[in-house]
Amino acid sequence: MSEWDIKKLQILRTLSERGTVTATANVLRMTPSAVSQQLTNLAKQLGVPLLEAHGRRVRLTDAAHLVLRHAEAVFAQLEQADAELAAYAQGEAGEVRVGAFSTAVPALVVPAVRELRAAAPGISVRVREAEAAEAYELLAAGEVDVALSLAVTAPAAADADTRFTRESLLADPLDVALPGGHPLAEVDGLRLADLAGEPWIFGGSGPWSEITRAACEGAGFTPEQAHSAAGWTAILAMVEAGMGVALVPRMAAERRDGVVMRALAADRPRRHVVAAVRRGAAGGAGVSRVLSALRSAVPVRGAEPE
């Protein structure tokens, strides 16, 4: 197979455009002898004559024109590659994998993807739904590039886990879900402390369990966990059946005829939706664009931006 040298092919193309070795040398800021030497070497590499004498000048052979026809396709492909690489470097292209808990997918990730399709169509976002507690495991394993999880409080500047850079995207207010007809369903100025004696429904472990317990303890009591469930459909169905009460993030609230959603007057507990990336990766162009799009998706359904 012949050896194709891009730099030498560019010299040949310039000679075809300019017509003389001297003009080619001027355009390329080379000496005429260097131009001639490069083209002589290219002819040896390709195994065909590229120039022939024409009076006091040289002209391209038929073989040279054939070479240039194919070289033009190569140059076009390289131009496209340069453009795509430039776009990639500027965050306009590439794939970013996002792991997110269930309610964050429709509320934050989908709007972010829509924004990126319009603003940076070269960026492909691959979404993986994962429990909030699993998000950091996927991030540490390199299976996702951005992880959305939950926290009781906003991440501190001096994060204990040095593997990740974390930021709170929003503080999502927690409302209380009560069965229809509950004695407290219509009470003015309802406080979380008013529900201290109620049976509670929340997850058995992970961030959501910590968030519920921390909110109740902040109001002065430890919640009695009557039932454990991870999905909001199951939790609200149990509330509707009168099996207990639950804190429900505003971002995840679903309308159910037999459930009364009440905003709490004074306690105003919140959960923090946190975006995390591997430390040092936040400056990556694609990841940076995705984080920016996620920030733009806030506020959502009454959630409070950080």
What does this structure look like?
- There is one protein chain.
- Helix 5 (104-119) links the parallel strand 3 (93-100) and strand 4 (122-129).
- The chain is built from 9 helices and 12 strands.
- It has 306 residues and is α/β, with parallel strands linked by helices.
- The two termini are 61 Å apart.
Q: Beta-sheet strand percentage?
A: 15-25%
Number of strands: 12
Uncertain segments: none
* Main pleated sheet: 8 strands, mixed
Mean of residue pLDDT values:
87
Overall 3D geometry?
rod-shaped
- Spell out the helices and strands N to C: HHHEEHEHEHEEEHEHEEEHE
Helical/strand content category: alpha/beta
Straight-line N-to-C gap:
61 Å
Pfam family, one: HTH_1
Domain HTH lysR-type: 4-61
Keywords: DNA-binding, Transcription, Transcription regulation
Family: Belongs to the LysR transcriptional regulatory family.
Which characteristics define this entry?
306 residues, alpha/beta, 8-stranded mixed β-sheet, two-stranded antiparallel sheet, 9 helices, 12 strands
